[in-house]
Protein 1
Amino acid sequence: MKTNRPFVLINMAMSADGKIAPAHRRFVAFGSRRDHANLLALRATTDAVMCGARTVDSAAVTLDAGEPKGVSLRGQVVDLNVVLKKQHKVDISTKAGPVWVFKAADGKLFTLLKTRRSLALFDDPRLRGRALIMKGRVFTGTQVLEVTFIQSVRKGVVHDVFYYCDICVIKFLAPGPCVCCREPVVLMEKLAGKKNAPVD
């Protein structure tokens, strides 16, 4: 029976004798490459990823869906109406709502597909007008960008962008209430090799 209620799935690697962890309780990656590829494929279908606190403390764990393949563009999210009015003197109606597009560093404009992975660009004004790196793919013969990964650039340093509930220790792709405790999640940036820190 189909339902709109949230559900949880679990993916675990297990040894031939049924163990999921060694006796010393430290993190050991004993799954195969195929296991890892399956893990990343499952993550790509989810809204949030949870991981055990012991695993996070004992290893450099990433909770994304793997390094995306395709284009990597540097630029910022801008309102197409503002761009057209400024550059081409287009008479935009005052009643027209914003049309968010990605303006690359070379000036090219890309239509943003509104997907689960790009929702933050539409819903969080803090991400607009700031230096970003978009990873994803551009469909052949179009300027349509499907975003798979968002990064920010602050003082020349690249950060991964995501949202986080520090109460439930859950990572999200977009702003809004935590699916568990319903408290608002926090916009975060993560430097390589450093713990999560709130954005200023």
Protein 2
Amino acid sequence: LNILSLPLHSASAHRTTTETIGNPSCLRMTSMDLDDYRKALDDLVVDIQDPRALAPSERLAMRERLRRANMVIYRCVAGARMDRTVLAAFTRQLGLGRPDQNLLAANDGLSEVEVKNEGHFSQYIPYTNRSLNWHSDGYYLTGDRIIRTMLLHCMSPAAKGGSLEAIDHRVLYHLLAERDVRFPQALSRRDAMTIPAHHDHGAAREDSTGPVFFVEGNTLRMRRARASCVPTCRIEEMLLKTATRVNRND
């Protein structure tokens, strides 16, 4: 499996957490919205003739899927040229912003996600044959360096495995609220989660504290999410304790 990974920043907007803004429209989701999301998951693929020059219909089809499911799968026709330069041109046409220069990325911001045994690469799960748990990209970054878009381009498929599971964070917020409205409230606090400092294997990162969910403009964002090996019942217990503390403080 060889994948080109490109996390991107878009133009920054004033960031306000859900702790202070009440209940904006982007937090409300109906049963019809959920039904539309489920239907959209069956129609995520858009065929692309030339990634260097997207047709208006291709761009429109991609944007519609992003609106309904917050993701799209593009499929280049056989023989379509794709390399780092073409991929950069492709993202510019979609207005995806500037690449994040993470620790193991190349100068153009692209990361070649494949098994690598040399240097620091072998110390990070994406560069091994181990599976990744649920996470949001850049969960350890500070508030002025938020990943708002993620592009994964498969250069060569895996001989075995290589599957991807994803969920729209707007749906996740809604499902948490259905279970107990205090869950997303707790996760929207400015002190909801702290990612510890990391100074090993070439990294130089201090503690990073912030919300998991927050609102930017009228758009719900999610960051600082990382899967845990703690059983689900234990996670719910921890969230309930946090939510109870939130209510008492309020």
Protein 3
Amino acid sequence: MTYIQTYSGRRVNVLAPALDTIELDDIAHHLSLINRFSGATRLGWNVAAHSLLVEALMAREGCSPAECFHGLMHDAPEFALGDTTSPVKQALRRLMLVQFGQEFDLLDDLHTHLLEAIVAALDLPPITGAQRKLVKRFDLMACALEAREFLPDGPVPDFAEY
């Protein structure tokens, strides 16, 4: 079974999402209940708050409304997938390399597939490669700010440049 049950009672097939099963209210509700950093923060900080921070940072720097909206929605697939931490993602890539002799990023592929479905369901223009890079830059900035403010020992080395 590849379906998840949403807050509103819909069933979303994560491998083949029907556009009429994806609702912005469900995405917002789910993301508001998913903790960042696997819950290791001193205070409650969820994926919805992170997404709003990314969007606010982009708006402050003069990004277009479309770019800001893509920043807001960049983690929307986590409504169905959960928030997998970067160290776990790296471990999965290494495991794939050891097991299969090449690096796969199945979680990233699934995230991208769901994001494309969400964008289509909301009748938005698809994200461009340049927008994706821009959003990633602000996502990492937000991660660094969050780590500094909310993790017990401050930022981790991966975020030192921010």
